[in-house]
Amino acid sequence: MIVVDAAGTSDFSIIGRSVPKPDGLPKTTGQARYADDLKLPRMAFCRLLRSTRPHARIRSIHTADAEAMPGVHAVITGRDLPVIYGVLPVGQDEQALCSDKVRFVGDAVAAVAAVDEDTAERALDLIRVEYEDLPSYMSIEDSLSKPGEPVHVGKYGNSHRAAALQFGDVDAALEASDHVFEDTYFFQGNTHLPLEQHACLAQWDPAGKLTLWTSTQSPHYVHKELAKALELREDQVRVIAPPVGGGFGGKLELFQHEAAAAKLAMMTGRPIKAALTREEVFYCHRGRHPVLMWVKTGWSKDGRITAMDFKSYVDGGAYMSYGAASLYYTGALQTVCDRIPAYRWQGVRVLTNKPPCGPKRGHGTPQPRFALECHFDAVAERLGIPVLELRRRNFVKPFSKTINHLRITSCGLEECVEIVTREAGFVQKHGKLPFGKGIGFAVGAYLCGAGLPLYWNDMPHSSVDLRLDRSGLVSVSCGQIDIGQGSDAMLMSVVAEALGARREQVRLISADTDTTPIDLGSYSSRVTFMAGNAAIEAARRLREVLLVAASEELDVPVEEFLLADGRLRRRDGTGVELSFAELVKLAETRNGALVASGSYKPPKLAGPYKGSGVGPSPAYSFTASIVEVDVDPETGWVTVERVWIAHDVGRAINPVLVEGQVEGSVYMALGEALMEEQVFRRGLHKVPSMLEYKSPTTLETPEMRTFLVETVDPEGPFGAKEVGQGPLLPVIPAVANAVYDAIGVRIHETPITPDKVLKALAARAEGKPARYGPTSLPEYTFPRLLVVEQPAEWASQEAHAS
Amino acid sequence: MKIPLKLRVNGDEHELVAPVQKTLLEVLREELDLTGTKHGCELGECGACAVLVDGQPVLSCLTLPVELQDSEITTVEGLLDGARPHPLQDAFAELGAAQCGYCTPGFLVTAKALLDQDPEPSRERIVDALSGNICRCTGYVKIFEAVELAAARMRGEGRRLGPREEIPA
């Protein structure tokens, strides 16, 4: 790992040091207790009866035989859980157990609590459900054209969310362009596949309190949804997230088994455990949306983008989940890497009878980023301009505004590109490697936390409470949940640095809606930026109290003190030195309890238009990647041999963990690029197991070289930006561009499997276009365009640029 | 049908009665409370549930304990030497080779079997030995490095981690 400090180093004692995660040894010694490791006296087990039909009306459910079975404590159906809920205020469309109809194979219709899992499973066999099948919609085309009852009956039918935005006069700009190019792409859906299958344990206190331990990335949203589904007041519900065995976006809302286990706990008075099988996890999904995309760009003859017209057709599966946001994300961040002076985006999310799609690492952004980066690679060739040259002419500038009103602050895109192209020898290799060997380039940008919460409010997105103990211990309390990404370690480093304590003195209490202050959850790459800033605010408040107390007690001006790494000293080296514990005792004696809170709310950045809530972020990370592949033209097999990746993380708080996030993103991107797909046959998942759903193993791991670029963001905690998601974005198109460089065919559809490579080679041999991918768009009329004024800064920014 | 079982796990003798169809994974987790061993699929596909049986990694989700009554079973909890973590456990923790940590116990016992056999494995050998374990977080690179770091330390060699940082052994 090489850290490139683009902004000059600062004098830190902890920030920038690679230090182990506090959860490292508990996880490597088997001491960490995940949700399914928990056990309570009198615990019973819950299993769900899931629909075997993709789309059917429920005629009747007969539960008497199951209820009569020895060992069964209770059987529930939708009558017991009638409330409709959803994670988005605009997406109230789910029921914990379906009453009227089922919308995908796997939708739950009944739940059993029994003495053990085997008994619960056998009881499910005794429940009889009579279905009346309805026409099922298994693709975007089906959903838009097939007649019949829509998945959800509503105003818009299956095309339930749509948007059309225009910034600048796109048609005039295209008309005036020297060149216009268009391409069509399809990004296949895929799933998170966390190693930990979802599990929860619910306990009811008859005094009126429900506790749910559950593997979730957002205790807060589960808390809100669960209270609604159970018809309890929110203060009656406590959600605790034990360590989470991987999320990637797949554990970000209330699931049917959580509501069912909670209800069964309330009815039986017993703690209820529900643990999903791997097959159920595949059906719960909430993963990457399949997206069909069309892009048209205009160019000046010197290779500057004049306009972009983009359409997204998004396959949502059976429910909204995060879908309204997912849809807008397929149109929001196109403008964040390249300066686009006129931009139109039209998108529609359709409902299908498949497991609901939702947020997966990169949330709605990897799909358009794949399309754009492949498109730009092809445009460079058509214009006869080297791709790096073309891209550099169009990159956004630091501290600028995009045409769709997104505020860019620090931006290390140029530095990232410079490093990876130099290290990989891109210019020397691109277009010059022997047939079958190729090298590809792409960039990307991502949010450091969504600018707006899921439900409208003006409250903080993250809060941190600090309490100092006279032992010198610093107790940090925050609702954030470490899902493996290292947010616990981040908070420890940030608090210790800002307070002046040693890192080992910091203890964390996390992810408990009863005892820790708000944090919205581990999604949208928000925790470092938001919880980090909240922690700094709290720590600086306490630091001030400590220094003032020491100043008064020792009669030394505050400015004369150095407080760092657990020691208070005088700058001139004279006088006594206090340990952190001694300093706390001194301050506690003078001030009483030493507590402070801090909170963070992103600045209001949304543009003046409907839909502008998706896209704004207090900062953006930037990444550049180069991939080298070997493609066997006989078998179509693509082997990724080497990956270079440079990521602008603002500031690397804990470099070893930052690097781990980059490497993990590269890995997940390679899975999506080459093999992972969530596909169905007659309503059934074709590959619902870890054997059949192909994901990369150690054997598919290429050489990876990671570079961290530090641009020190003015609003990030100690300058830090995100790293958990952005590095995934450029890798997928870089693979596709490398495949083209290797064998001269363009694969416009993920995953790039051998059959597609062979079909593209065959097409070329027959004199047809040397590509594989979609060739047409479905019939659909987008809503009327919402034409948005350009940002106030746009004119002066453009004048300055030219 | 329940049957009596005599199992030797991490050096402890256990006598218990468990349903005959319960897998070693289920008996370890549910009867003996050794929840350090995880499950990712319960079909022998992911490697998360690996434990050592007489020093060899086996998938506990595909193994019936009735077959193992004369064997020495080692789980992730048994890698510790008293209170001292195994060098692999330390190295995985230090390098962030355990992110979410759910696949980690399976990787650790598999890597231990490798190092017991080959104290200085090549990168290729490590990649091959761990190819039956799936990790979704790390991209495997930190795992390879942690195995190499632990191996070096077990051979008595100190090791630097990188240009920026050195973690003391």
Structure description:
- The complex is a heterodimer of chains A (about 800) and B (about 170).
- Chain A is of the alpha+beta class and about 800 residues long.
- Helix content of chain A is about 25%, strand content about 25%.
- Chain A is built from 20 helices and 36 strands.
- In chain A, the strands form ten sheets. A seven-stranded mixed beta sheet of chain A has the order 4-8-2-15-12-13-14, sandwiched between helices.
- In chain A, strand 16 (about 290-300) and strand 17 form a beta hairpin.
- In chain A, helix 15 (about 525-555) packs across helix 16 (about 580-590).
- The longest helix of chain A is centred in the C-terminal third of the chain and has 28 residues, at about 525-555.
- Chain A is globular and about 85 Å long.
- The model of chain A has no long low-confidence stretch (mean pLDDT about 95).
- Chain B is α+β, with helices and mostly antiparallel strands.
- Chain B contains five helices and five strands.
- Chain B has helices at about 25-30, 85-95, 105-115, 125-130, 140-155; strands spanning about 1-10, 10-20, 50-55, 55-60, 70-75.
- In chain B, helix 2 (about 85-95) packs across helix 5 (about 140-155).
- Chain B is globular.
- Residues about 160-169 of chain B have low confidence and may be disordered.
